[in-house]
Amino acid sequence: MRWWSVVVAAALVLPAVVSAQSKPWGIDPGRSTMKDVRSKVGMPSVIKFNAEGDEVWEYNNNPTGFHAYRIVFGPDNVVKSARRMRVDADRLQIKPGMTTKELVEIMGEPSLIYFIRDRLYWEWRLHYFGDQRHRLVAEFDEDYQLKSTMLLGAHYRGSGTTHGYGGITP
Amino acid sequence: MRAAAFVWVSLAIVMLAGCAARPTGEAAIYGKAPEGTTMQEVRTRTGLPNAMRFLGSGEEVWEFNDRRVGWGGWRVVFELDGKVREIKSIRRPEDIARLKTGGATGQEVLELLGEPGGVSFTGQDAVWEYCLPDRSRLKVRFGEGKRVVAIEG
Fold it and tell me: Chain A residue closest to B115 (CA)?
């Protein structure tokens, strides 16, 4: 294959990939309305309000999906932002000592909540390093503050995520 | 005859004592009174919440709402140490009565009724739809400034 054919293929495919990431379902911040989102994507998993008072719809595909999306609406019901959640940029914001509230603000609601030896654990399903399916496991201390996180590949024995449902995706 | 009467009276006393000790109402779904129940026990008995919120104080709130197929909902508020502070049902008549004064924000509706079972639109105005514990339906319509302008049902 000639080098220029690779360049041409990349030039054709890359904008579509970038567009799918920045405008999921073709939702256009500043133009699309809440009604558009409802008709294109369906009912959100969670409706909440952020610190600025904006309405936030999350499609978290919990407990089995690996994709999650967050759409923020302005006071006029027009989309302010629409983006994928649980991406590397979100994961890198996580620091030990964070509270459950701070983690939900960054990552959205966890896919799983469980206790092992009286210690609280949360899990999210996400893609790491491109499209590699992983589980992010967060362990909390006795004061319910984040102690540590661990990233497990979906192929890890016993993870049960190799057949994970993709959920609602653009 | 006397022995039989003694047995019946004893049985009645034991049964009445059992009723008195048994938690009632909202606490009954968890099999015990909320005070002292831990997050771990709620997780074990009730499963994953449908929604998770946080109060201004940082207290965690789990909502079990069965919003698409169910008719009611429960909310469990945890203190910062993970102990249950409160278990209460949502979508109660008094919650709806508070909304009927009008002008509530979406945030206030969420706090009173929990997540809606459906969202539809009248023009560009959102309508949140709820199923209530008495098997009736409620529609909350938002208007100017994203505040409640009408409640139907």
Answer: A47
